């Protein structure tokens, strides 16, 4: 059975989206981006909400832009190779290959997808992840923690959910970004 992984860049105070400005990521550093490439290369399916899909669809054509460094080209190839499911009630069409739209998030359908998948899946975006967390579907949490405290926004973990996690791996990067991988107990 494949794992469902929730991974996002998050501020030091736990926000995946800042109320104002950005999260001060540090993820654009080649060392971090290469690490992310290697980490997510085996992913077979990305589960996105509309807003996250609209951000990530950049990777469908990133390889066509001039002077892209090798780590950017590699991530674009890996992203293009994976299946994408976009959960949206408003999106009328998609602009990437291997992508389909689902109108509602169905936990049973995701359970079946996990059971039948040969490769892991990710759920991306705090709103969609909150639904997967509430349904008990998330197996691992990969946090990329910045050095910024943003004071508000959309939280990485939804309110009202209790999780007991086991730290599996951690890594600090020269940029100050910290990677922490937790497994559901």
TrEMBL record:
- UniProt-listed SUPFAM superfamilies: Dihydrofolate reductase-like
| Sequence ranges assigned to domain Bacterial bifunctional deaminase-reductase C-terminal in this UniProt record | 3-178
One GO term in the molecular function aspect is: 5-amino-6-(5-phosphoribosylamino)uracil reductase activity
| Stretches assigned to coiled coil | none
**UniProt record, GO biological process:** riboflavin biosynthetic process
* Listed InterPro entries: DHFR-like_dom_sf (IPR024072), RibDG_C (IPR002734), Riboflavin_Biosynth_HTPR (IPR050765)
Membrane-spanning regions, if any? Answer: none
Q: Which PANTHER family match?
A: 2,5-DIAMINO-6-RIBOSYLAMINO-4(3H)-PYRIMIDINONE 5'-PHOSPHATE REDUCTASE, DIHYDROFOLATE REDUCTASE FAMILY PROTEIN (AFU_ORTHOLOGUE AFUA_8G06820)
Q: What is this protein called?
A: Deaminase
Species, as recorded: Amycolatopsis taiwanensis
Biological classification of the source? Bacteria, Bacillati, Actinomycetota, Actinomycetes, Pseudonocardiales
């Amino acid at each position: 059975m494949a794992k469902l992984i929730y991974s996002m860049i998050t501020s030091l105070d736990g926000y995946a989206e800042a109320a104002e400005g950005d999260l001060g990521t540090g993820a654009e550093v080649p060392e971090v981006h290469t690490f992310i490439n290697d980490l997510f290369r085996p992913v077979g399916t990305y589960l996105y909400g509309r807003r996250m899909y609209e951000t990530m669809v950049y990777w469908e054509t990133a390889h066509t832009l001039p002077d892209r460094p090798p780590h950017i080209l590699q991530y674009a190839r890996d992203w293009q190779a994976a299946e994408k499911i976009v959960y949206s009630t408003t999106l009328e069409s998609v602009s990437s290959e291997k992508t389909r739209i689902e109108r509602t998030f169905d936990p049973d359908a995701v359970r079946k997808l996990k059971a039948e998948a040969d490769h892991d899946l990710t759920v991306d975006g705090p709103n969609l992840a909150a639904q997967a967390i509430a349904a008990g579907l998330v197996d691992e949490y990969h946090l990329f923690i910045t050095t910024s405290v943003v004071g508000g926004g959309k939280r990485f973990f939804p309110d009202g959910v209790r999780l007991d996690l086991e730290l599996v791996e951690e890594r600090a990067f020269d940029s100050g970004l910290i990677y922490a991988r937790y497994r559901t107990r």
